[in-house]
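Possible regression after last week's pipeline update?

I re-ran a chain I had predicted before the update to compare outputs. Posting the input and the new output here so someone can diff against the archived version. Not blocking, just want to make sure nothing changed silently.
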Amino acid sequence: MVVLGLLGAPFVVPHPRLAAAAPRCEARARYGRECSLCGMTTAFLAISRAQFGRAHAANRGSLPLYSVLLANQVCWWIFLRRRWRCLY
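New output (post-update):
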């Protein structure tokens, strides 16, 4: 459910509000360098607008991570649907 909220939030909550609510990167704050997830919020917001080039520029791993999370949700939905059929 958390992943579903993560993937669905950019479609329901205004982007400036989500960007303001995103946590600050501790690696950047403490050590002055980016971590592997820096730019991921910006990238996910860009993906929700179908701006894939901008998402890739924000974080190269955003498209693969988003794809994996989306595939996970599809598999979860299929599992629940099959489980529901078995029960009834």
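Follow-up from reviewer: compared with the archived run. Residues 68 and 74 are 10 Å apart (CA to CA). Marking as no regression found.
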